[in-house]
Amino acid sequence: MNAPRILIACAACVLVACGGGRPMPDELQRLDDLHRGGLADNIASVVVEDIEDPAVQELRASALDNYESSEVYHEYAIDAFDSRKDDNAVLLARVGLIYFNAAENYHRSAEARERLNLANRSFEDQRRRRNEYSERLDTETELIRLLTTVQALFEQNEELRRQLATVEQEVRTESRALYAIQEARIQQRQAEGMRADEVAAGSFDTATATLARAQGLFDDGEFDMAYQAALEAVEQYGRVIAEAEPQFLEDRDRLMRDDQNRAIFEEAVRVFGDEAAFIDARGVVIVLPALFDRGGDEIRDSRVYLVDEALRLLRDYSNREVLVEGHTQSSGGSEDNTNLSQARADVVQDYLLERGIRASRLTTAGFGEDAPRYDERDAEGRRNNDRVEIVFLFE
Questions:
Q1: CA proximity to 290, closest of 390, 388, 369, 384
Q2: Which residues contact 52 (CB under 8 A, 6 or more apart)?
Q3: Domains of the chain
Q4: Mean pLDDT over residues 60-73, rounded?
Q5: Distance between CA 229 and CA 226 in Å, rounded?
Q6: Other C-beta atoms within 10 Å of 118: how many?
Q7: CA-to-CA distance for 167 and 90, rounded, in angstroms?
């Protein structure tokens, strides 16, 4: 029970020490201090199974459950702060504080209940020993006071639960809007790959305007309205794709009659698989997913082989010009991600140049977080979006 909390505390210390001196938001600092305090140790050290009184056991278990939930949100908040998403860090820290306060109240209630049990036993002992009215009266007064305290604490917990439900609903609403916008961007990317901005320009512009409206609403904190607008954009892009698809398929069939185009595509599919190698209106696209660590611009040692495979294709088809696109996941600021994605594209270009590819064949571009390829609702999707795409351009 203590090990995860120690790791979280250590991570928080490292974050402050290594994070460029950037102070934590007040809510996160307060949550961090609570998790390293004596009260946290008291709550976490209780062995629920050893408690005999069912009522006390239930209170202790509730305290422990809420404390563990606070630990989880503490970790989420630290991760958001590490990603420089301070607003999310504050919101998550508030959730963690609410859970911690609930844990403290259950802990205090359990202590009060234990004192109540002790007072009961004392009352019975005193009645057996002396049976004196004054001592019974004192004990009964103490019992009433303790019962009043327990009732007040339970009423406090009800209010905390209501606050928690409100904050968690805000988090769910924001996430729902964020991922709907992401889905619209994926659809936009697919439509652009079919050259829908030319073939179905009017419909494409309408969908793009709807997506921009969804992003604006999200930035203004209107998450419900942003979600609805993003769903509308997804639907509009779907119609755009259907409108552009016949012309795209016709163009693709014509281009694939070229022996070299077909050979590049078939070799790319053989090496990278049909999910990472495909054709769009620009050329043969090869996706190199999870090529970088989050926030980094150095090719991961375990993924260098992907760039080497692409290098082999560039050598085999030395007459083809190539576009190197850099991309990022959505954590971090938009401007920072744009700069990071360009740096990633440049790193891959340098790798290719150092191995003999002519500079005149290579062009780079950085798209930041604006062109996701993978769903970021899970860790794997976020990792995969830290990627580079290499496009063998059609002549």
A1: 384
A2: none
A3: 2-131 (no CATH), 258-395 (3.30.1330.60)
A4: 89
A5: 5
A6: 11
A7: 11
Residues 375, 382: Cα–Cα separation, whole Å:
7
Tokens at residue 358, please?
Answer: 């002519």
CB count in 10 Å sphere of residue 64? 20
Please list the residues that pair with 391 across neighbouring strands.
285, 323
Tokens of residue 162, six digits: 């209501």
Residue with tokens 């998790």: 35
Q: How many CA atoms lie within 13 A of 48 on its CB side?
A: 15
Looking at the DSSP bridge assignments, the partners of residue 388 are 288, 326
Among 89-98, 150-159, 351-360, 375-384, the range scoring the smallest mean pLDDT is 150-159
d(CA 365, CA 179): 25
CA distance 107 to 62: 8
Over residues 83-119, the pLDDT tens digits come to: 898 889 899 989 989 999 988 888 888 888 888 888 7
Residue closest to 111 by CA, chosen among 68, 145, 150, 152: 150
Q: Return the structure tokens found at 217.
A: 């609403």
Angle between the 54-82 and 86-129 helix axes, to the nearest 10 degrees?
Answer: 160
pLDDT digits (tens, 9 = 90+) for 266-284: 999 999 999 999 999 999 9
Give CA–CA dist 258/393, Å, rounded: 13
Short-list 99, 103, 94, CA closest to 43: 103
- State the pTM of this model: 0.55
- Burial degree of 63 (CB within 10 A; 0-12, 13-18, 19+): buried
Residues for the chain: how many in total? 395
Report how far residue 106's alpha carbon sits from residue 108's, in angstroms, rounded to the nearest whole number: 5
